[in-house]
Amino acid sequence: MASEEAKGDAGLPPLPARSARCRIVSSALGRQSAVALGAIVLISLAVGALLATSSVGESAVGDGTGRNQIVLYYANETTVQAARSDNYAALLSILRMSANPLAPEIMNALVEDAKEYPAAVQHDIDQLLTVARRRAFDLAIFSNTLALDRQYLFYRAAAGVVEIGQLPELPGAPSPALATAPLSRPEYFDAALREVGARYPPDSLDVILITNSHGAGDLALTPRVFADLTNVNVPALWAELDRPAAGAGERAVWAAFPGTTKRDYWNVLNEVSRWRGLRFPLVFRQACESGPSSWAEIGAVPSSVDAVAHTADAMLGFSDVDDAAALDTDATGAVRVRQLSVALEKSGIEVDRRPMLWLPLARSALARNYPFLFFLPLAAWLAWQCRTLIGSFRRPYRIV
User: Fold this and answer.
1) Each residue's pLDDT tens digit in the chain (400 positions)?
2) Which of 52, 68, 103, 331 is the most buried (most CB within 10 A)?
3) How far are the Cα atoms of 29, 286, 361 from residue 22, in angstroms, in the given order?
4) C-alpha distances out from residue 389 to 246, 375, 376, 385, 386, Å
5) CB 327 within 8 A of CB 337
6) Cα dihedral across residues 344, 346, 347, 353: positive or negative
7) Which residues pair with 143 in a beta bridge?
8) Any long-range contacts for 370-375 (C-beta under 8 Å, 24+ apart)?
9) b or e along 268-298 (b: 16 or more beta carbons within 10 Å of the residue's beta carbon)?
């Protein structure tokens, strides 16, 4: 079988290192043992001082004075429908035919994900509703299970009642995998934000956004398996997997609809911000490898976003972060956001202000290229010597 990256490009789930909400194993794990020590040393020396300023502090988020505030929980969990779908059946059949020794373990990982992920999301929903009632904050809840019935939950603290809202009817999914994971699609992400925004006056709403999903690389919202395997030719599939990993944008036709990319994610937030003046004092992408993946993505983050919580290029288990506990505070407005940020950081989540989002990407670049950095002093010395030598040839001779 091919490398982990090739399987990721194919939309198939390689063996995870532990139970996690990741679609694929973090590529960082494969190089961790080789670069960890050097990267840590270099990062400490090169950007250590800057890192101290990257977390959300007293002045990192807007105070939201005179504005409404809501917590929006958006869970792109694996559904019962996905686990029982023809697509999953086709994948399990393909894995059973595989001679690769990892195939049985991958099958077990799929079964565990289908059981543990929806249970973890339902636990989050129950606890968030309990905390919202106790702490009197507005809460909107979207999940794949609810979205398959075109429903979502809305709790307005002033009324003390949980309402069942209706999502608009959207065009059909472009692939079987997305049909059972509708919240993977940018259209549903946009619709969810607009449903919430329409409940408040224009230019009055601050959204604490938590998106809980599988994720990897340049994907922000994606199913555990996004490949359409119902009509794939099995020998062609294995041939595809045995090739070197494809680059971005070169996925096979049957894996061409992976969900919402990270740039699409920010584009949706930008559109709803322009539409109704929504602001996002904190966005938590609760997924594996949820940090910025490119400089182009950083440029797409709208000005309506004050701070982003993410996992950089690390893994994340289902129970690593307790969203409800982090929100269980008497604080309101900007103070709630700051306390939530601190709680997330204590759970190992990185929280960066929008202007500082380049730091995680810079750290990743250092980790990938740190051997080269050892030669920078030598390169600088050689450049200086060459400059001196060239200058000596150009210096005019003085004739006495």
Assistant:
1) 334 444 554 465 544 444 556 543 333 333 343 344 344 434 444 444 444 344 454 333 444 458 999 999 999 999 999 999 998 998 888 888 887 788 888 899 999 999 999 999 999 999 999 999 999 999 999 999 999 999 999 999 999 999 999 999 999 998 889 999 999 999 999 999 999 999 999 999 999 999 999 998 899 999 998 888 877 767 766 665 555 544 444 556 566 678 999 999 999 999 999 999 999 999 999 999 999 999 999 999 999 999 999 999 899 999 999 999 999 999 999 999 999 999 999 999 999 999 999 888 887 777 666 565 556 677 677 777 777 666 655 555 444 4
2) 103
3) 13, 10, 19
4) 46, 21, 20, 6, 5
5) no
6) positive
7) 75
8) 370/35, 370/38, 370/39, 370/42, 371/38, 373/42
9) bbbbbbeebbbbbbbbbbbbbbbbbbeeebb
Annotated domain spans of the chain: 4-371
Q: What is the dihedral of CA 84, 87, 88, 90, to 10 degrees?
A: 120
Q: How far is CA 37 from the centre of its chain?
A: 26
Q: How far apart are CA 82 and CA 99, in angstroms?
A: 25
User: Which residue has tokens 């990982």?
Assistant: 109
d(CA 176, CA 13) in angstroms, rounded, equals 16
Angle 59-63-66 from CA coordinates, rounded to 5°:
165
How many CB atoms are closer than 10 A to CB 61? Answer: 27
**Model confidence, pTM:** 0.80
Say how far apart CA 343 and CA 345 lie, in whole Å: 5
